[in-house]
Amino acid sequence: MKKFVKIMAVIAAMGVMMSFAGCASTPTASKVKEKGVITMATNAAFPPFEYLKDNKVSGVDVDVANEIAKDLGVKLEIKDMEFDMVIPSVKAGKFDFGAAGITIREDRLKEVDFSVEYVKSSQYMVVQKGKSFTKDDLANMVIGVQQGTTGDLYASGDFDEDVKAKEVKQYKSAVEAAGDLKLGRIDAVIVDELPAKTIVEGAADKLELIDEKLTEESYALCVKKGNKTLLDSINKTLERLMNEGKIDEYVINHMGK
Ligand code: ARG
């Protein structure tokens, strides 16, 4: 009998130890639930994915993030910052995830973990109306880009060293670069497809899109490396939204705004 009690005590102790170990090995999905809040890092200068509307960040990525928060049963908090701070601040654990139309890249995969891809995109050139350029003209062109984006990397010859602008001007946003383009201070802006279309829609008398796909890219959300439970939960929401055709719906809703 004594022996039996001892064995039971050992089993109970093991159970307690295992449940502690369980806590330690399940990181942020449970921490997020505990806090009751999930935090998102973004750069709200990238319509239709994220832009300021009445001083509030809205867009496709915000709609997606609201669903992620809803599925976790928590509140969403959004922090707007420079685009090139989104990945570093998620990496540093300052925010639970990054959502900013972020293209999956080898070098970025070393910094953070990416979700399943939820949007396909490409870089395009926006030019002054009536101008016709192709990528073969880049060597003679001054190109405006948002700093740290794939447009920046493309214009700088990172995708193909033979395709490189004469000069790359970095701006805080592609919208700001487009302002300089209208004034003729640069020859083109290189930016992702839907933001390019949004920029042109807003200035159809002055700007146009060159119908030449420059890259093939896919967007994903990102989390701090190793944060598997949160990533699983994000992926589940993304898969659901894609199956329900919601992402396309969000894009349609936020275009032309
Ligand atoms: N897809 C491009 C990249 O990952 C541009 C993303 C810019 N996003 C933004 N919210 N400003 O580099």
Key terms:
257 residues; alpha/beta; D-Maltodextrin-Binding Protein, domain 2; 5-stranded mixed sheet; 15 strands; elongated; binds arginine
Q: Mind explaining what this structure looks like?
A:
The chain folds into two domains: 2-120 and 218-254, D-Maltodextrin-Binding Protein, domain 2, CATH 3.40.190.10; 123-215, Periplasmic binding protein-like II (D-Maltodextrin-Binding Protein, domain 2). 42% of the residues lie in helices and 23% in strands. The chain has helices at 2-25, 28-35, 60-72, 83-91, 106-109, 150-155, 174-182, 193-201, 228-243, 246-254, and strands at residues 37-42, 45-46, 50-53, 56-58, 75-80, 97-98, 112-114, 119-121, 123-128, 142-146, 167-171, 188-192, 207-210, 217-219, 222-224. α2 (28-35) packs across α9 (228-243) and α3 crosses α9 (228-243). It starts with a helix and ends with a helix. The structure holds arginine. Residues 42-43, 45-46, 50, 83, 100-103, 146, 149-150, 192 line the site of arginine.
